[in-house]
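G., the chain you wanted modeled:
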Amino acid sequence: MTLMSDSDWIDATIVSAVFRADYHIALLAILGALLLLSALLLALFARDPKRRYQPQNLWALSSGFSILCVLTVLAIWVLLSIAAFPQGSGSPVLSQQDVDRYLAAQPAAPAEQPRILIPTGVFVQTIEFTTAFDPIVSGVIWQAYGPGVPQEVMRGFVLPDGSDAQITESYRVTRGDAQVIGWSFRATLRQSFQYDTYPFDRHFFWVRVFPADQTHNIVLTPDFAAYSSMRPQDMPGIASTFVLENWDVKQTFFSYHTEVYNTNLGIATSTRPAEYPALYYTIGMSRQILTPVIIYVVPPLIALVMLFGILLLTTRSQERRASAGWNSTNVLAYCAAVFFVVIVSQVNLRQQINTSGILYLDWFYLLTYCAILLVAINAVVFILASERRIIQHEDNLIAKLLYWPVLTSAMLVITVLVFLP
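Predicted structure as tokens:
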């Protein structure tokens, strides 16, 4: 990922989207290639009018279009995996100059209680996702209290997003004319993640830090002097051996978010502004997709292949029906068994990602349920239909030809609608 200058990070338009806007250009190029190749396939199909509707030509057209759709979906997946990570969240600050510019743009501090700046550092040692929204974080947070910080200011910090927080003072040292106090912490930090693009989701995880003293106009600033580098790609504040299961850490940085208060918290003498700059330590992370694809994509895919095998066995020949054991009752029982296996896999997925929204992978399961239902209905109708019905044509040839093109094109449409809003 190309490093942006400090001013670019501050001036860039910050969006909550998973991917940057220029990601869409490559996706449109992939779709354009699909349209071109599909047109070429149709041209080849229509080249010989005499043989155009022969079964082998129809099978070639069906297979070719299905393969194009599958390759397009795979190309989009590759694009999602290698797309550059979003550039920042909130108002990123990479240097003291960035902090000065940000604070200068905020409402001026009242004369009777000017801002008290307290450099604050964060070092994250472990992150463990117990649920999709409740990661447990441990590490060290320290603050440097210079001579300009009044003695009556309460030392310490709070984690407003934390529950079951365990905070223990670890050390007190002198750095120049400042006193540095460090605390070890462990807390569950509730986060608001969007999982609609799972397993291609990318998130900004943050540690939001507030001052313990609410009676003074305190603004926490990053302790830049304590880090060897503030480049987001160098991941300041995280050990080089840091491991986050099923995730890749892409960047870390400090940022400010404006917290709006409509109360003085019961402190009548408080001069704290209603719009308060809150310090965030932010971690940009990208999910590792191999495991979710193997666990949650392979089962419905195998189910679809098995359903197609049942569809291929559909025939009017009593002899071939008997040898294959094909009848509507067996097909219904088989579809019920496949449905049970697929729904167990989806239940495991929903338990893993416990969210109220629809995940991207959920659409694959919904398509599989539709395929199970249609194959079962097709078997019953095929038995009941007369010789003149279209479903009886060439041993149910139309349903067999449309099976994969309909499913793969539906997968492609869903993928495009999810990732190209």
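Residues 1-21 have pLDDT under 50 and may be disordered.

Shout if anything looks off.
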